[in-house]
From TrEMBL:
It comes from Candidatus Competibacter denitrificans Run_A_D11. InterPro entries: Fe-S_Maturation_MIP18, FSCA_dom_sf, MIP18-like, SUF_FeS_clus_asmbl-assoc. Residues 15-88 form the MIP18 family-like domain. NCBIfam families: SUF_assoc. This is MIP18 family-like domain-containing protein.
Length: 112
């Protein structure tokens, strides 16, 4: 492998860091992080530009933290992952359902 290739940022590594950062964000009413809840619909990282684009939703459109949670995600990713720029988009389609939750989240919430 050439030195140039070894010096290029790794997209998988950056994505893993971003996911770990997202896992530090919790819905205040649910004791499970938003990643395990299935609230992250899409994640794209640009390791060269050190940027992340995130599409997320909430458990309900009337969620009291609708105005705050995207900012929490942006701050967590920017600070914990070392990403320089983050774009978080709140989307409602498709609507969130419990089917999007990980097995871990379902176990944590006694839903199995």
């Amino acid at each position: 492998m050439s030195t140039t290739t070894m010096d290029l940022p790794d997209a998988e590594e950056l994505e893993a860091k971003v996911i770990e950062a997202i896992k530090t964000v919790y819905d205040p009413e649910i004791p499970v992080n938003i990643y395990e809840l299935g609230l992250i619909y899409n994640l794209e990282v640009d390791p060269i530009g050190n940027h992340a684009d995130i599409q997320m939703t909430l458990t309900a459109p009337g969620c009291p933290v609708a105005g705050s949670m995207p900012e929490w995600v942006e701050n967590a990713v920017r600070h914990l992952a070392g990403v320089e720029s983050v774009n978080v988009e709140l989307v409602w389609d498709p609507p969130w359902s419990t089917e999007r939750m990980s097995m871990r989240a379902k176990l944590e919430l006694n839903m199995l």
